[in-house]
Amino acid sequence: MNTIWYETIDSTNTEALRRLDGIPSGTVLAARSQTAGRGQRGNTWFTEPGKNLTFSVVLKDLGLKASDSIRLNALTSVAVVSLLEHYGVQPVIKWPNDIYVSGRKICGMLIENTLDGAMLGASVVGIGININQREFPQLANATSLALCTGKDEALEEVLAVFLEIFEGMLSQLDSPELWERYASRLYRLGKTARYYDILREEEFEGVIQGVEPDGRLCILDAGGERRHYRFKEVSYIL
Ligand code: BTN
User: Fold this and answer.
1) How many domains does the chain have?
2) Which terminal residue of the chain, N or C, has fewer Cβ atoms less than 10 Å from its own Cβ?
3) What atom of ligand 1 comes closest to residue 12's alpha carbon?
4) φ, ψ (nearest 5 deg) of residue 15
5) Among candidates 60, 54, 78, which has minimal Cα distance to 6?
């Protein structure tokens, strides 16, 4: 994968979308500093300049149906988990694709797709991984690789390790083992905890059982009902 580094850019995802027609599949745009980093649900992604990985991988014509786009989220999550394990850290995946260590968020991802009929056209896989930042004044619930291991790492090296893992996994987009690996690392898997059902507007107690092949989260509630959720249909009560 060919990586282009920017000293400062508004957002690597925004830049990738702007340049989408002109860059080949497998191009990686990485920034030392983002001035308008974008997160999930329209949030801003803040990180200290020069301390963390903020990058976007452009992938084209993956042969993935648009209705299966969640598989790319799962694959990316499992690749980040493998990266962190490489550095001796044991993370979990907070469904659908936040990566947590000891109850704190270390990585978030924003995957933006274009469509080609019923298929995905291009995908911009935007990933923010906290690496060397040790203080998060605006974020009570964040951590970094350095806070987990006590050591700083060279950003270019961590990115190279990630890209090797990620590229090696791309052929598994269709494999059933992908969901097994993903589900086995789910935060709260098999533990009783509280959730909020956004459609039914009710709090309930349940146990995460895994994910369906279409990516829906499966929670067994205290009354014995298996509830299935798409993104933004359920929230965790912490
Ligand atoms: C989240 O809200 O958890 C998703 C955060 C995604 C941040 C990354 S940083 C690189 C890429 N460029 C962006 O503007 N956002 C993503």
Assistant:
1) 2
2) C
3) 12
4) -65, -40
5) 54
